[in-house]
Amino acid sequence: MKRLIIPMAIVLLTLGFNQSCSKDETDVDENITEADMPQIKAAVESGDWRITNYSDDDMDETTNYMGYSFTFNSDGILGATNGNISVSGAWSITISDNSTDDSSDDDIDFNIFFTSPDIFEELTDDWEIVNYSTTKIELIDISGGDGNTDYLTFEKN
Fold first, then answer.
1. Which residue, 30, 33, 49, 147, could crosslink 70 as a Cys pair with Cβ 3.0–4.6 Å?
2. Cα–Cα dist 138/129, whole Å
3. Domains of the chain
4. What pTM did the predictor assign?
């Protein structure tokens, strides 16, 4: 009986350790599907959002967007304002069925498009939705050129 206790304890500890490890930042929630699109769209269209994380090629550029409030309108217009400056762009949520934009062949893309100014043009991409809720949406973009991962997080104001 004593011989069984030690191996059983090791197995239980190993299982417990594996369950307690969190997902890496780049892990994508494979459960986000086309069926989630209306829920994601409804969430982002309600209220104003701010960027709480923007990392481009391992450089934290979040401060470039401090003070800006983003509005995702139902007509596809994306607005950003800080009270003095207003910028307009476009946004959409689409199904991506190719691997040229990121690591997954069948995922949901959060598309952002700005033509100017330069700091907003940096946000222009077909971002992959990693995680979402009614108050937060986490996006990544894996560069086709150098393989770096960019991170963008919006949180509701």
1. 49
2. 6
3. 28-156 (2.40.128)
4. 0.77
